[in-house]
Amino acid sequence: MLEIAMHKYILALFISMTAFSAPNYHADLFCAYDAAMKYKEIVKFEFQARDKFRHCTISCIVGIECGVTASAIMGMAKEIADVFGPGNAEWGDLVADIMGLRISKRQSVYNLDTCSQSCEYYY
């Protein structure tokens, strides 16, 4: 419960920081938050080492569905929340997020399965 509250607080902070940006930007941030929460439940991993695979895959699919910028902001917000919350903030998680965003720009990557297959190669 506290983790969800922290994530919503971070999302509100980023939205307020972008108050003067393009109007569609806020919709992209809400899209990214909703998509990240949805795919967090779908993309599971068995071992802790698979955490980077999960970061890569979720960043990729959120980048496709909501835009790369919004997905990048959500990835950073998640790591900031981990600093103050119960999670473990790691630079490696941000690197995996960036890899997922790079993969999401490929023409051959267009859905969760293709994101997952591409991230599997790296993680």
Q: Could you outline the blueprint of secondary structure elements for this entry?
A:
Layout: H1 2-17, H2 23-42, H3 51-66, H4 68-84, H5 91-104, H6 112-122
Helix pairs in contact: 1-4, 2-3, 2-4, 3-4, 3-5, 3-6, 4-5
When the domains are counted, the total is 1
Which percent range fits the helix content? over 70%
Strand content: under 5%
Q: What is Rg?
A: 14 Å
- Choose one word for the global shape: globular
Q: What is the number of helical segments per DSSP (H or I, 4+ residues)?
A: 6
- Name the average pLDDT: 82
State the total count of DSSP E strands: 0
Order of helices and strands: HHHHHH
**End-to-end distance, in Å?**
30 Å
The main pleated sheet reads as:
none
Structural class by sheet pairing and helices: mainly alpha
Uncertain residue ranges? none
Structure commentary:
The termini are far apart. The model has no long low-confidence stretch (mean pLDDT 82). It is globular, with a radius of gyration of 14 Å. It has six helices and no strands. The protein has one domain. It has 123 residues and is mainly alpha-helical.
